[in-house]
Amino acid sequence: MFAKILIANRGEIACRVIDSARRLGVGTVAVYSDADATARHVAMADEAVPIGGPAPRDSYLRGDAIIAAALATGAEAIHPGYGFLSENPDFVEAVEAAGLTFIGPSAAAIRAMGLKDAAKALMEKAGVPVVPGYHGENQDPGHLFGAAEAIGWPVLIKAVAGGGGKGMRLVERAADFLPALEGARGEAQTAFGNPAVLIEKYIEKPRHIEVQVFGDGSRAVHLYERDCSLQRRHQKVIEEAPAPGMTEEMRAAMGQAAVRAAEAIGYRGAGTVEFIVDASAGLRPDRFWFMEMNTRLQVEHPVTEAVTGIDLVEWQLRVASGEPLTSRQEDLRLDGHAFEARLYAEDVAAGFLPATGTLTHLRFPQGVRADTGVRAGDTISPWYDPMIAKIIVHGPTRAIALSRLRAALEATEVAGSVTNLSFLAALARHEGFRAGDVDTGLIARDLGRLTAAAAPDLRVRALAALGAAGLDAGGGRLAGFTLWAPLRRQIALEGMAAVIELPGEGQVRVTIDGEVADCRRVGGAWWVNGRPAGARIVHTPGMVSVFGPGAHHFALADPLARHAEAAGGGQTLSPMPGVVKAVLVAAGQQVAAGDRLAVIEAMKMEHTLTAARDGIVAEVLVAPGAQVEAGAPLVRLAEEAGEEKETAG
Ligand code: MV4
């Protein structure tokens, strides 16, 4: 086994690799960008090396800096995690040329699976079923059209170098073929620098079922399947193992096909063979086809760990350090059912827009596995994937595991950023999902229902008002209330006004929009209208959150903040979280309404902010490169001439 490894990644996967390494007595070196100097993975590792600026190309994609860090710290091997350099064969070669071990497959194995057409041809030869279609060299439009006619409509045009749905076009009839081909080729050229396409029969309502494989360079085993059909725009949302409805016959066929795929390329380490499945007539062993092979450890690997009891990172370290695979296929067992939900900082209501912010409060329930790269107080920055955590549950049956997932999601507490938590919980309650009736279109079909924000009920609003009044603290010593407060108080929360009264000893009456909630403190817990409230009130700056079940957040309507906003005719605020690309004015400069003040970049799009009125720049509040949150002031204009400040007296 290695004495020390370097983890060329960040976030939850870096933390998760460090956990297994530590358990095996392996020393760990983290690398980090300037944006991650205080990140959890840096704090967890034995040593940490800065490798550059926050943009991935300046740090986590800099193979040279990462290899230099490994050599400087005496690490013997590099674990790439997923994303970044994990499937870059040139990096693998550079690691090996430096005398280090890459914890993963050979450069040749990665290259063999890099292009869809070559991978399909290779798999066909190895006896792995591939989607009927054309994946040859001839890219002449007439030839491709002939191939499509032969396959039969509808067909799918896919970029040979593609992934994640880029350069993919559905063609339902002959007349649409040529424009679709041109569109796919253009997109493929732009995205991958390679316009080549292949043509496939279109599988309607497919399921995405993938098989975890593990090889030692010659032999491979499979560790059963995962169903990743719950996706939104090619982003996986909830994954599970095993696949609902899987039969022993189908599992054996898919497992054998995946092992053939891995052995055909002399695969070493953890990999995943993705299949597309036509489940329109149930799961049948003649209705699955190879899609692609991911030559890395995947995000959703924990569901496989949960149902097999295997630590896949331990296996990766063992095989990379030269140990042979010790488990044979017949030694492996499938135990129960597992789910993983991906908790993201994202604004579901705004079309799943990635969000940023400081996680002022973060708490996961007991008894579930939460893989995370952040702690309370950490920031989700705009530089990287906004995943907060993966929540993984296990149970003896699918129904029990799914009810554990629902409970875990309803008991997870996050404040400081919007999240997809209630969307995930709605999915966990979805009838079709509960019935195991999953396909890749489920989320899109029921999007409205899944993203409808639940209005807080009276109980939740009353608790928020109690929290805003400061009555939740102090262990029920309500008597103190009368010492400092009047018997009747108005509480203003964003979108809600409440009146709090004390009708008697230990009792609080909250009136909201004419509805009355009689609240009482019983043994340290609140009861509302005769029932235990069963919720937790959490305070974070400017906010009261009520957790359980689910989460509701109420901004404190701060009269001071509102005053600043009104007076802030002079302030230009960032409309969203992002990075300041440019500041176009300086203090003292005269500007006219509409003049450009600053440029913010968020999610690879630039937004220019302009002056709301004529004036003089009093203050520039940010510098280029700064990370800003939504509502952050960027530039302040001097008060208009003749406008006097309010004075006392
Ligand atoms: C398909 C397909 C139907 N028929 N291929 C989407 C991304 C890429 N990995 C392959 N994808 C698909 N390929 C044929 N021949 C439907 C999809 C597809 C999909 C596949 C897996 C998971 C989610 C998906 C969402 C939309 C389309």
Summarize the structure in words:
The protein is α+β, with helices and mostly antiparallel strands and 649 residues long. It has 19 helices and 40 strands. Strand 31 (543-547) and strand 32 (551-555) form a beta hairpin. It is globular, with a radius of gyration of 28 Å. It binds ligand MV4. Residues 131, 156, 165, 200-203, 206, 208, 231, 234, 276, 291, 440 line the site of ligand MV4.
SSE class = alpha+beta
| Gross morphology | globular
For the largest beta-sheet, the strand count, sense and barrel status come to: 8 strands, antiparallel
Count all strands and give the number.
40
Number of helices: 19
Work out the strand percent: 25-35%
Termini distance? 78 Å
User: What do the pLDDT scores average to?
Assistant: 91
Cα-atom radius of gyration: 28 Å
The helix content, as a percent range, equals 25-40%
Strand order of the largest sheet: 14-13-10-11-12-15-22-20
Bound compounds, each kind once, are: ligand MV4
Which parts are unreliable, with pLDDT below 50 for 5 consecutive residues or more?
559-568, 642-649
For the structure shown, list the relevant keywords.
27% helix, 19 helices, disordered C terminus, binds ligand MV4, 649 residues
